[in-house]
């Protein structure tokens, strides 16, 4: 039986779950091959982490289930999930017998993916800043006095 490892990512309202196994390089998004994704922009975003992996992408199979949001949000969420899956899969502490990559190759892949795009791995950094304690509220901005 093939062991699936699942990794989760989200972008805006899109949520993606990536499953990674040892394989021959198949990448499927919602059971559709990534090469058949209609929007070219979304396809390029999704293929970004795979291009960084290079020839190593031919040793794993990735399956991504994504829902919610628009097609750009879904493509970013799936790219984040795929890069987390590849880096998380290479972080195994013990040396599995059936792992297709050697330890040095896994460390190199993890380094390249983390250098590729820091904000993809950390998520969206454009979140709203929280309200400061003791700062002006909405009422104070609208009127001059409280009387």
TrEMBL record:
GO biological process, one term: translation
UniProt signal peptide: none
One matching Pfam family: Ribosomal_S9
Region annotated Disordered, chain positions: 116-147
GO molecular function: RNA binding; structural constituent of ribosome
Biased composition (Basic and acidic residues): 116-132
Basic residues bias: start-end ranges: 138-147
Keywords for this protein: Ribonucleoprotein, Ribosomal protein
Matching InterPro entries: Ribosomal_Su5_D2-typ_SF, Ribosomal_uS9, Ribsml_uS5_D2-typ_fold_subgr
PANTHER family: RIBOSOMAL PROTEIN S16, RIBOSOMAL PROTEIN S9
Protein name (record): 30S ribosomal protein S9
Source organism (scientific name): Nitrosotalea devaniterrae
Gene that encodes the chain: rps
